[in-house]
Every structure is written in structure tokens, then in C-alpha cells.
Amino acid sequence: QVQLVESGGGFVQAGGSLRLSCAASGRTFSSYAMGWFRQAPGKEREFVARISRSGGRTYYAGSVKGRFTISRDNAKNTVYLRMNSLKPEDTAVYYCAAQTTVVDERVVVPTRAGFYGYWGQGTQVTVSS
């Protein structure tokens, strides 16, 4: 069992930056690849970024690539999402999640929410124009 708690959300003007954190409980954090997802009002939850268990491989949605950076510190049981050059369309509740379905990453990059079995409660990010 893994419990995830996000923090760092808030209100920012377009072009600004935020860093989200996701703290995990338990001693098995490094056993999970981690992902960030977001959900805007009236829209489905969408994939944002993923990081492998060691942190050596990352993957981003096209809409955030080059602006967002996912990282992790396994000693601190924490995964981060650095968000730069924020746009109003980035406004959403952001969730971190632990990947519980093992896949061959040479074949499939786990971007679907169904691959992730543990979720945080979310943190709101609002970007004004």
C-alpha cells in the first residue's frame, strides 16, 4: 500500500512557474514508476509525465514537453513536477500516481490512468491570463 500526498499547487500568472511535490508513504516508493496526471473541469483526466523507478527515464505529454520536468528523490520518497512557462490551459487539478501494472516499456509507455493503482488527492493549479 502506498499513500500519496500532493502539494505545491496554487494560483499563478501565465508565464510563471510552480513546483509540485508528491510525498509517498512506505518503504517501497522506489519500486514504482511514478506519473503525473491532470484533470480540468469538464474534461477527462489526462497524462502529463512519467518517470521510471530509478529516475533515469522520463516521458512527457506533447502539450507539456519542454516546459515541465518530472524528477524524483527516492531517499525522500518524493516525486516532483517542475512547471515553467505556464499557460491558462494548464489549469487543472494535478494528481500524482504510482504505476502498479508492469509493462514492457520497449513496447508501451504507460500513459493511461489504468496502469496506475495508487493516487493522491490532487492539488489545484490555476493559471490566469
* Mean model confidence by pLDDT: 95
- Count of DSSP H/I helices: 0
Which overall shape is indicated by the principal axes computed on the Cα atoms? globular
Radius of gyration, CA atoms, in whole angstroms: 14 Å
Described by strand count, sense and barrel closure, the largest sheet is:
7 strands, mixed
Order of helices and strands: EEEEEEEEEEE
Number of strands: 11
Structural category is mainly beta
- Poorly predicted runs are none
Q: Approximately how much beta-strand content do the residues carry?
A: over 45%
Task: Provide the helix percentage.
Answer: under 10%
Could you give the distance between the termini?
40 Å
Summarize the structure.
With 129 residues, the chain is mainly beta. It has no helices and 11 strands.
Structure description:
The chain has strands at 4-7, 10-13, 18-24, 34-39, 46-51, 58-60, 68-73, 78-83, 92-99, 116-119, 123-128. It has 129 residues and is mostly beta strands. Strands 2, 4, 5, 6, 9, 10 and 11 form a seven-stranded mixed β-sheet that branches. It has a four-stranded antiparallel β-sheet with strand order 1-3-8-7, with no helix packed on it.
Which features characterize this protein?
seven-stranded mixed β-sheet, globular, 11 strands, 129 residues, mainly beta
